[in-house]
Amino acid sequence: MNYFTSLKLVFFGRVQRHRKLLIFSADSASLFSMQKQSIEPESRQMAEPPQMPVLQKPPGYKDPSVPVQPPPRYPVSKPVMPPSLYPKKKRRGCCRACCCCLCVFIFLISCVLVLAGAAFYVWFSPRIPVFHLQSFEIPRFNVTVKADGTYLNARTVTRVEVKNPNEKLGLYYGRTSVDIGLGQDGGIALGSESLPGFIQGKKNVTSLKVGTEVRDQPLEDGAGADLRSGQRSKSLVVKVAVRTSVGAIIEGWKVGRVGVNVECGDVTVKDVEGGDMPKCKIKLLYWIPLY
Asked: Which residues form the signal peptide (predicted)?
């Protein structure tokens, strides 16, 4: 072995020794640090006093100092109905408005009519006409008894007086029908006549002449004898019925017209021939009695 070879061996030997020393020093340092770390907690634990374990709150515990909050309320959802079951909307507002307007209109019209009627009555003081049975004559009266029954042949002339008592109103009458009969109920008809309409001035009196005639009018059994005796004694009861319509005339204008029924009766032929003029009964609108 030469000199250079011995130097190499020496050099490599020293290098290996230094490497081992470095590895040993590194391992020693790491071991020392680990021992130090393990010793420090133990010394710290020995230095600190022992602590009590923290108690756990039991389940369901509530702190009384914390205010209790009510649970949130969620809106209740209504069940959805099918469109066919929804109630139909009614236009009540429009109907109520129309009814109110109509009622107000009718009320105003009624007030106007009442005021107009009151003014008319105060100014004109209207009065209904007055009817009297003026006269009643029987120029011919014959009761004939035949084999097949009893028959009446008669002719009458009747006058009915019509008086207009109004000072500011004229009156006009429609077509007038007059029926003549005998008996309390006018059961024995002596004919009828229709008269044309006429006009009455203020404070005017008009006489209506009515002539009737019957021929071979059949009578009930026993009625012929009663008629003969009543005709001789003039105790026959006269019945006159007048049916007409009357309206007012204001400054030449004809205003309205209402129907009237006039009944003149319950008087004998003897009383009428003696000058008695009984007042007739009037029914307005053909059925409302006035006097």
From this structure: none
